[in-house]
Design goal:
TIM Barrel; two-stranded antiparallel sheet; 12 helices; 15% strand; disordered C terminus; binds 2-Phenylacrylic acid
Amino acid sequence: MTDNSTKTDLFSPSRLGGLQLSNRIVMAPLTRSRAGDDGVPTELHASYYAQRATAGLIIAEATNISPQGRGYALTPGIWTDEQVVGWKRVTDAVHAAGGKIVSQLWHVGRFSHVDLQPEGKAPVAPSAIKSEGQTYTNEGMVDVSMPRALETAEIPGLIADYVHAAANAKRAGFDGIEVHSANSYLLDQFIRDSTNQRTDRYGGSIENRTRLTQEVVEAVLGIWEPGRVGIRLSPTTPDAGNTPMDSTVMETYGHLIRKLNRFNLAYLHFVEGSTAGPRAVPAGVDLDALRAQFEGAYIGNNGYDLELAIARRAENKVDAVAFGRPFIANPDLVERLRRGVPLTVAPRNTYYGGGANGLTDWPNGDMSAQKALDKEILPVAN
Ligand code: 8OZ
């Protein structure tokens, strides 16, 4: 019998700030695009997440904080009461299955299309610089639209949208929230000098460019205790339109991380390398050295397999590991990793859109043969 829990503490209980987890395996936030136009999560979402509740922590798919924050059709939101009711069904189902789940608060910034925006207006961004990327609307894949720069006077309203979403996440029964400051969406657009050319207190110096992320975190701490708030950063991911990363990654993100220490957050969550791509980072960047500047717990993510997870945990480089794509087709991923059961690979065409097909119809690994084997070879105890 394989029992990988003898080799590593990945399968043992752990704590990230105020979040007590049954193991150190986290389900990474995965956009699956199964909500309706109203952004309301359905029974399907409840089943999908409950099936994956053996993860030590589920980070729910990126969730729009406001109509303006929306950049992809069929992604869920958390600004309306109906959305809160939908999410409550999800959190109840996860809790009934013994799991923990946090909401990832998302504003796409410039990465949107006028068809997805209220009154067909331009998406908002730190500066009026267009991404070369594409998104999907109800009409299919389209180039993202030219954004307009946010007025300084609009920033308090934007922060209020985060606070509203954070309060709704609490009403919806989540165990906490994760601030999405990664992947070249709004907060990361402010951080990077490639997308931020502002001349007010939110642009220019590193201090200024990292200000909005800090102000958002500080504001949501009016709703949530710090031990239930995490943050996700992706210092080396270009955006889907290949916008360059910040020109001084170590200095910029290092400054932000040191500043975040004053909040005592539950965790820092990095996409290591390039989101859903290679783990390699450019010369001069050392993500472990950045992580080391954070005083709290750390979740590592991107392209992990069990071997890498065990190795990075053994070196104490991570407190927990977030698996993304492996959770799509392996609802019982934790048990499969523990038992060395082969993983199913989800085809790409199941990632986004559609219904139950490719979402909730993945079976658990066949553990019955393993269990029979356990019976034969385990010494009879008691
Ligand atoms: C894949 C497709 C659409 C959005 C991210 C929220 O990268 C996303 C996302 C991923 O953070």
